Amino acid sequence: MITRVWFVVLAGMLLGACATSPQGRMQVTVPSSVSAVHSEMGMRLNLAAAADALSSCVGVECRLDRAFDQRVQRLGTRLAQSAFEIYPDLTERFSQFEFVVAEKAEPGSASSAVGTVVIFRGVQKLRLDEEALAFLIAREMGHVISRHHDEDSATSILFSIAAQVLLPVTNLIRGSAALIQATATASTLSTAASFVGSRIVIESYKLDQLREADAVALDLLASLGWNRGEIADALASSTQVIGDDRWSKDLRVSAREVGGLTEN
């Protein structure tokens, strides 16, 4: 009973109040300090799971890499300036965006709650137009601005706490092999249950998050003078050369959403 009470208290300390996305959707979030750690760990795990690109380059390849890195930094800097102008409350969560090109072989992108935006080296192979690359960067910024990392962290923490409460392991006597095995089994079940449960819930609102990130991205790009129709055309071209992984499927969804918005 005491253990359950402490878990409830811990949940109250970790979870923040309800928040509202820029598009008006209600969210349950955690404080930025909690999400910063949680989302950073998640991003690092995702990067670790992705295949590394070749570790060295020579001649023309190095120059192409540097040119791509500079494009990402230039576009990111411009978009960040607009982001802080459009969403001034961002300064309460972090002071600046950081843009990084990760040496990962396949196309992809990631971000964390503290404003880190990562573009995989594999994106360079797509030879994206300026509009499409800017949209990719702005879409990751859209996830940050819309507090999606805070929301995902809240869901994961809630399910972790709930699993511990529902599968408690208390009053164990040291030295008992059977009880040690029971502890390990219960811990494994608890971890598995919390992971599966949190993933199901996160998937249930993932499409809403993607649409919100797309909307923020379009607002950021519009503030810099990009035409929505040109963005839609650039995305339509890029989706013809990407694969069938989760990131590519999400980009196709974004391309359809943006294309549909320009037709309305």
Distinctive features:
about 260 residues, mainly alpha, 8 helices, about 65% helix
Description:
This protein has 264 residues and is mainly α. The protein has one domain. The chain has eight helices and five strands; from the N terminus they run H-E-E-H-H-E-E-E-H-H-H-H-H. The strands form two sheets. A three-stranded mixed β-sheet has the order 3-5-4, with helices on both faces. A two-stranded antiparallel ribbon has the order 1-2. Helix 6 (177-223) runs parallel beside helix 8. The radius of gyration is 21 Å and the shape is globular. The protein starts with a helix and ends with a helix.
**Strand portion, in percent?**
5-15%
User: Total helix count?
Assistant: 8
List unreliable stretches of 5+ residues. 1-14, 169-180, 182-187
Domain tally: 1
Distance between the termini: 57 Å
Shape: globular
Mean pLDDT comes to: 82
- Summing up helix and strand content along with how strands pair, one would put the structural category as mainly alpha
**Rg over CA atoms:** 21 Å
How is the largest sheet built, in terms of strand order? 3-5-4
Short description:
By secondary structure, this protein is mainly alpha-helical. 64% of the residues lie in helices and 7% in strands.
Indicate the topology.
Elements: H1 2-14, E1 18-20, E2 26-28, H2 32-49, H3 60-86, E3 98-102, E4 109-111, E5 116-120, H4 130-145, H5 148-166, H6 177-223, H7 228-238, H8 246-263
Parallel strand pairs: 3-5
Antiparallel strand pairs: 1-2, 4-5
Helix pairs in contact: 1-5, 2-5, 3-4, 4-6, 4-7, 5-6, 6-8, 7-8
